Amino acid sequence: MSGWIAEREAQTMASTYWKRPLVIAHGEGATLWDAEGREYVDCTSNYGVAITGHCHPRVVEAVRVQAGKLLSCHGTFYNESRSGFLKRLSAVAPKGLRRAFLSNSGTESVEFALKLARRSTGRPGIIAMMGAFHGKTMGSLSATWNKKYRAPFEPLVPGFKHVPYGRLERLEAAIDGETAAVIAEPIQGESGINIPSDDFLPGLRDICDDKGVLLILDEIQTGLGRTGAMFACEHYGVEPDILCLAKAIASGLPMGVTMATEGVMSSLKMGDHSSTFGGGPVACAAAAATLDVLREERLPERARREGARLLAKLKALEEKYRVVREVRGRGLMLGLELRFDVLNVILGAMERGVLVLDAGRNVVRLLPPLVIEKGQIDRVVSVLDEVLGEEEAARLRD
Ligand SMILES: Cc1ncc(COP(=O)(O)O)c(C=O)c1O
Q1: Could you tell me if the CB of 107 is within 6 A of ligand 1?
Q2: Which terminus of the chain is less hemmed in, N or C, by CB atoms within 10 Å?
Q3: Does 246 sit in the ligand 1 pocket, CB within 6 Å?
């Protein structure tokens, strides 16, 4: 590892990240290179961001051209790059979601959704799910479940309740006259690739309609083709009232998007919300190119096909090793739940040239760029096979 790079970061950055001993220098497709020129198959996409692959030439060119024209353009002015992106977004978004607010990150997208729900209903209550992850600023953190993230920063925003993920009867019972909205991820990412039963999202939609509360879907991790459809809610034929996007939307440039129905969005008054950088021309150019690439290269379909192939191969590892409790996933959003902490597996895979993520304490999470190639998938499986084999042998010895 290039020592001085790591040392300087370690000495000068706030120490909020667990750091891997790895300096990433550049990337292409699903491949990353470290500062010494060593190659890695990337199954992180930098936490779900690099959906079109690292440095997709279409995205790079769009950024380059726009950067030479105009770097910033506040939302109080009109701009061609922003309009071009919004036109493409409307073409792929769930039909009823006709309006969007543009910000710069996932947590901002959720913050706006929460404010919008309160404004539109005039009620303060938000029901979120146990295990949920929606971000770490005060509003989104209030909807996030993990006590480790929440407890040091209490008191959080009042009016939030959590109910068990996937339990419709508990959700129904929790809704009262103060409830503005229910917020959920179609598949929970950070807490372990938790896939609810097929009737969960449709049931959620029905309950929200019956009770007159809004449904917010957080597709910050599941959206933009990741699960094998442009948005995961399409698998279930469900449309939310408010949809949160970020991560992959601009292939790596910072962008958050909150979409809503005309009726919900029209509740906002001038000045209710704003963002200096939101909808900036460079991020919008990258996002427009991202949507073009997703469509033209049929990446959601590819995620479905290659995800099914990868899932089948990982299932074989579940059969082979007792240390694997369960393999699950949809599209190219996959998890291997182990019977122990995954740190050794993450580091062992990295030493062998494969980068994977954790999700919770004991789930290895795979979120590769959707352009990952067959040979790379085979390499990921053979490295995981090797690392899990070693772990199993070590555990049998102990
Ligand atoms: C489902 C979900 N919502 C919200 C967020 C927060 O996004 P950001 O880190 O861009 O604030 C994340 C990030 O991991 C996420 O997975």
Answers
A1: yes
A2: C
A3: yes
- CA atoms of 303 and 76, how far apart (whole Å): 38
> DSSP letter at 230?
S
CA nearest ligand 1 atom 4, residue: 134
pLDDT confidence of residue 369: 98
Neighbours of 233 (CB within 10 A): 23
Phi, psi dihedrals of residue 151, rounded to the nearest 5°: -55, -45
Measured between alpha carbons, how far is 235 from 233 in angstroms, rounded to an integer? Answer: 5
Among the listed residues 249, 200, 325, the one whose alpha carbon sits nearest the alpha carbon of residue 52: 249
Q: Is the CB of 191 under 6 A from ligand 1?
A: no
First to last CA, the chain: 32
- Report pLDDT for 1: 55
Pair of tokens at residue 261 = 């129905």
Average pLDDT of the residues in 113-135: 98
Per DSSP, the three-state class of 277 is coil
Per-residue pLDDT, averaged over 331-360, amounts to: 97
pLDDT of residue 188: 98
Measured CA to CA, the distance from residue 196 to residue 165 in angstroms comes to: 8
Which residue has a Cα nearest atom 3 of ligand 1?
134
Taking only the tens place, the pLDDT of each residue in 133-175 is 999 999 999 999 999 999 999 999 999 999 999 999 999 999 9
Given a cut of 90, whether residue 2 has pLDDT beyond it is no
Rounded to whole angstroms, the Cα distance separating 103 from 106 reads 9
Out of 108, 134, 233, mutate this one to test ligand 1's pocket (max ligand atoms within 8 Å of CB): namely 134
3-class DSSP state of 81: helix
* pLDDT confidence band for 198 (50 / 70 / 90): very high
DSSP secondary-structure letter at 120?
Answer: H
| This prediction's pTM | 0.98
Residue in 138, 146, 188, 221 to alter for ligand 1 test, most ligand atoms within 8 A of Cβ: 221
